[in-house]
Every structure is written in structure tokens, then in C-alpha cells.
Amino acid sequence: MSKIVLLTGATGFLGGYLCAELLAQTDATVHCLVRGRTDEGARRRLAAYLAHRGIPRADLARVATVRADLRAPRLGLDDATHERLARTAGAIYHCGATVNLAADYERLASCNVEGTRAVTELAARAEVTLHHISSAGVFIDAPHVGHPEVDEDTVLEPGMPGEVGYTRTKFDGEEIVRASGVPAVIYRPAFITGDHATGESSASDLITRAIRASAVLGVAPDCATAMPTAPVDYVARGIVALSTRPAAVGRTFHLTQPEHLSMAEIFARLRARGYAPGSQPVTDWHATLQDRVAETSAFTMLALWRMGRYLLAETPRDQVPVVRSERTRAELSRLGVTCPVADTAYLDRIMGYLAASGLLAR
Questions:
Q1: pTM of the model
Q2: CA distance 231 to 18
Q3: Alpha-carbon gap, residue 296 to 287, rounded angstroms
Q4: Are strands 4-8 and 252-255 parallel, antiparallel or unpaired?
Q5: Which of 135, 133, 126, 161 is nearest to 147 (CA)?
Q6: Which residues contact 244 (CB under 8 A, 6 or more apart)?
Q7: At the N or C end, where does the chain have fewer CB atoms within 10 A?
Q8: Structural domains in the chain?
Q9: 5 neighbors 92 (Cβ within 8 angstroms)
């Protein structure tokens, strides 16, 4: 691998893990494009996050900060910096995005669509491979257009990302990458869950929000949904392992666990810790959530409202598609990367992390 790679999204949940894996699996210097009012502000923001990730000090010497903004034309870079990055980069990992499941498409497009366009243009200028981190969410409404199952070779069709702004922007981002002609690899993580070893989870992802809301309300939704998921550490390790293989260029990979994760089992582990002892039918739970919005925050309510029919499906019609990943997992297995099992012990580690972090309230 080239001595210099560019990474967007390094201060995000997955992006921080990606940075750590790039440092662990390669000898590259990782130039992280980070938002900030000043160069020093961007550097401090990245340093604080990577220190939290526990990256060894020796490896941190191979991290450089480039102040940039995915929402701005040409990534907010001046001509000299843009040219320098195009001249020196050996690969680009585009993980940066605004992940807001409550926002409309228009609010997200500047970052998730136009930002992807700008990153793709930089990859074209640099004549390097673009490793584009998309989302399995591009298929969230696939059953409604005749695809109850999808795999790495399923062709994207209009209607598949549904009406959620975030999934629509990820759909459009993929279309931009494919249409550009840039050598690219597309990675589609499923719903990203906590670190398999520690349980560390994003406070703002959809499943965590459902857990936190249920803890506040004292009741969990009674649903039989199963969601495609993958631990964040597995996703990051898998992306970097695959990206080091030249044969990956032009392909799409699904980073998911072999079996979808039961939401009922998640709520059972929450209940085992003494939270949300009651349960309600999904419709009643949504009504309770809206009645007590001041306690659960408007954003939580909106995020669950927009995505709730997928996460907490009441009917088979609302089930997400089966996201298959056999080919990706087989290739990763050959590379020594195995997807860990989402067993009871793992779910308990997630609940333990959320409780210890003060993210669960009774």
C-alpha cells in the first residue's frame, strides 16, 4: 500500500476504528480530513478522538490532519492543498457522512451527496482507488420493489432506499461513484453495533436510541423484527483487509453477520439488567414515545418515527430485506477475518457499556 492514504470521517464512530485498523494493518501515513474552524482546532478534535480509541503513541505519529469540510465545494480545500493531496495520495477511504435518520434528504445532500462527488473528483485527479463506505440501508425498502433478499451483486434500483433521507443520500452517493469511472470498491456495512470485545457503542445509532428510549419509558416494544447488523470492530477490520487486495477493485462487499439480530433478544437483555420491565405492542409503544417526547428527546422520537417501521416492524410488509454476505465473509475468512457471533454475552457487553456510560436511565 502507498505510504499515504486519505481518510474522511475519522472522528466518527466507524471512522475512528478505520483509522486504527489502517495504522495496524498497513505502514501508511493516514491523512485525515477533519472539519474545524482552524487547523489547530481540527488537529485537536482528531487527537482527542484517536486518544479515546487507545491507538498507540507510536502509531499516532503516522496520523496527519487536513482541515476540510465535506459540505463545501472542493472539500473546502485551497488549490495548493487540493493539488498536494492529489499528488501524494495513494488511496482514499471515504467514510465521512452526516448520519441523521431524522433529517430530510435536502439537509443531508450537501455532505453525503455533494461531499461524495468532491471526494470522487479528488480520487480521479489523483488517479487512485476510492474505497467508498456506503450502507446496506440503500436496500431498506427493497422488498417493496420485488427483492426480499439482496446480496453483493444485486443491482440498485429506484425505490430501494425508501423515503428516509439518509438512505437516499447513500444510494445517490453510490451512483456517483459508479458513474465516475474511478477505480473503486464499495463497502456496505449493515446496522453497525458495538465493539464485540468491549460493547462500546455509538450513543446515536438507531438501535441504541431504541434501547435508550425503552429504558426511559420503562417499556420495550413487543416486536419480532430481525435486523442486519455487524460489530464496528469487525466492519473496520474487514474493510481494511479487503482494501489491501488489488482484486477488490470494481467489487461491492457486504459487512454483515451471518444471521440477522433479533430485536426481541436485544430488549430481553435490556430487561435482564432491570430496565424496561414492561412491553407494549409496537403501535402503543410509539404512542407512548410521542406522549413522553420531553423525556426521550425530539430527535429520538423523529429518528424512530422515520425508521421505526423497519426497526420495529409490525407486519411482514415492513420487514427489511435479508442482506446476504456469504461471498464477502468467505473472502474475509481467507484473509483471517471472521465475523464474531452476536450471542447473549455480546449483547450483555453492549448493555453494560451503555449503563456504565450513563446512557441508560430508569
A1: 0.95
A2: 13
A3: 13
A4: unpaired
A5: 161
A6: 1, 25, 26
A7: C
A8: 4-201+229-259+321-341 (3.40.50.720)
A9: yes
Residues of the chain with pLDDT below 70 are 1-2, 302, 314-317, 362
Instruction: Note the pLDDT of residue 89.
Output: 97
Give residue 18's region: left, alpha or beta (phi > 0; psi -120 to 50).
alpha
Q: Is 261 exposed, middle or buried (0-12, 13-18, 19+ CB in 10 A)?
A: buried
Could you give the CA distance from residue 327 to residue 150 in angstroms, rounded to a whole number?
A: 12
Question: HSE on the CB side for 198, CA within 13 Å?
Answer: 10
Q: Which triple of cell numbers denotes residue 256?
A: 454483515
6 and 31 Cβ atoms separated by less than 8 Å: yes
Is 306 in contact with 101 (CB distance < 8 Å)?
yes
Judged on CB neighbours under 10 Å (0-12, 13-18, 19+), 334 is exposed
Beta strands in 35-119 (DSSP E): 63-67, 91-94
Q: In one letter, which amino acid is 4?
A: I
Q: What is the residue type of 251? A: R
* 278-281 and 91-94 strand pairing: unpaired
pLDDT of residue 113: 98
CA gap 344, 48 in Å, rounded? 32
**Rounded CA separation 213/268 (Å):** 15
Kindly state the cell numbers that stand for 154: 444485486
> What is the DSSP track for 141-160?
TGGGGT-SEE-TTPPP-TTT
